Amino acid sequence: MADKRPPMGPRTNSAWPSPAALILTTVVVIGVFAFPWLNPGYRALSFAVTTGVTAIVLYGMAIPFGQAGIMSLGYAGLMGFGAYTAAILSRDFGLNMWEAMPFSALVAALCAGLFGLPSLRISGHHFAITTYVMCELLRIALINGGKFTGAASGLDLPPIGTVLGVKLDKLSNAYMLVAGFMFISMLAAYCVANSRYGRTLRSVRENEQLSRSIGVNTNMYKVGAFMLSGLFAGVGGDLQAYNFRHISPDLYGGATSLYFALMVMLGGPRTAFGPLAGAIIVTFLPEFMRIDPVDSRIAYGLALIAVVMLIPGGVIAAVGRGYQWVMRTLRGPHAGSADPHSAQV
Amino acid sequence: MVTFLQELVNSLSVASVIILMGIGVTLIFGLTGIINFAHGEFLMLGAIGVWVLMGYGLGYIPAVLIAVAVVGLIGFLLERGLFQFTLTRPNNGFMASLGLSIVLQHVVIRIWNSFSKSIPEPLPGVWQIGEITFIKMRVVVVLVTALVVAVTFLTISRSRYGLALRASLADRQTAALMGIPIRRYITVVFTYGSAIAGLGGALTIALFPVTPFVGSEMIMLGFAVALIAGLGNVPGVVGAGLILGLVTGFSGAYGTPEWTNAYTFGLMIVILIFRPQGLFGGTMGPAIE
Predict the structure, then answer these.
(1) What ipTM was assigned to the predicted interfaces of this complex?
(2) Structural domains of chain B in order of their starting residue, each with its CATH number
(3) Per 3-state DSSP, what percentage of chain B is helix, strand, and coil (rounded to 5)?
(4) Which of A241, B41, B136, B162 could form a disulfide with B156 if both were Cys (CB 3.0 to 4.6 A apart)?
(5) pLDDT at B150
(6) Against a cut of 0.90, is the pTM above it?
(7) Distance, C-alpha B57 to centroid of its chain
């Protein structure tokens, strides 16, 4: 298979995607923004909002997991930091969603750095288990936080309010807002992956010793990747808190983190559309199709096992490979390997 | 003082279940390199198995024996059907086991429901020694655990099979050249660890009501004792399990039960950071390739 390809030329490192990828992106953007006009109904639209918020966090998670190759199971916790920051700032200082957002992002990023610190000493599965445990620690702390965190029943938030004459309390407008943030985070994750920084992270993933030997401060890069991903989680948490208008500790436990990991792996952490696809497949589809939640979880567990064993890059990467194979077959054997950037970030 | 001794006695049975969980994790994770997040679900299956069988009118002891055998068989099938393909890429095994954990949990919820399940006390009554009360069933749980620990420890440290196992951990290639059937050892260890988890579950349901979610709680305690002790270190698991059991018992007795798991998890993180090889020293898992 690989030997039929022409020899690789010098790597261009161009961040510009191929025309096919641009067309696909346009279709997805239009499709997502056109969704409310299809009259999906209140229920589907509110699940779509949840899906979008989840996807924002997943794009953050894809940076350390996809690029640096470090799996963390702490993202529900980081999202929780963002959400609780927003709720507490709103309660104690009367800040609204926009004013709280930078604080949410900052708090989550700092905590992400803190969650990531053990990765300098602990590697691989030990680290994944450690972050899961940190997430559980946060949940226990929130439950026992008394009045400050609202204990097990959680906290309430005011409505988002009106910005520039747009009533964001209306669900379809809130959907547009979340969709906008979702695409911003997709773009941001794409830019990070295709930057010098992203390349260095990949060098840490492929061979940490080697990249350290040529003078890369891998510790800084690792913690940096976590903090960057924490920004996404914080923004996601802020948006989630204001869209749900009620948050409780159980939203941010280890179990939620597991589902986040499931979604990222299912969609594919190294592809531009992977996290979105994962969020749609796991969060949106079963509710939209009204599948029994227990059945759908069994199905997703099985799907995850199948993806891990058969197509390790995730669903979107497999689709990308399929597309490239079709294009190669159509163009004949020597017409060139389609742009490697089209699917694989 | 009496309260203190009483709590000590009560903690031992909690510690026993944690130790049974930890032994499975430490053997499977430490000796075969498979990180099975679904290990806690084996405990849950053992407990639910006993509940189902007793529902058909079986006695407690035959129900335990059948449930342990069934969980062992499930472990065997999963190792042959799934985990053996992930031996060289433990990351994939870990991710697949996350999916497996979700599947097993929800299959049980699907067939029976998610409510907590309990069985009539198999051995009611207490022994009274001085002012301290020994609940009979708890004593049995501690004794069974002690037996399992002794058998496991002696097999690994004294028998030729244990020697071969430790050799294959140190260097798979050389051990294979010496004629040790490594694949078969991995299967046996995985099956044994699964069955021990099943036994833990079968004993748990004799002490407390059990929900289908008990597995995901117990697996974290299992990882905690195994990592605190140092992977592959069976006596270490006993030490760590006793520490955690006592922490659980005493934080319950002296005021802050809602923070119990926080102490456990905090201890685990601190120990992993400052002593990655564990408190009592262990392997860091087998070297892959």
Answers:
(1) 0.83
(2) 2-274 (1.10.3470)
(3) 75, 5, 20
(4) B162
(5) 92
(6) no
(7) 27
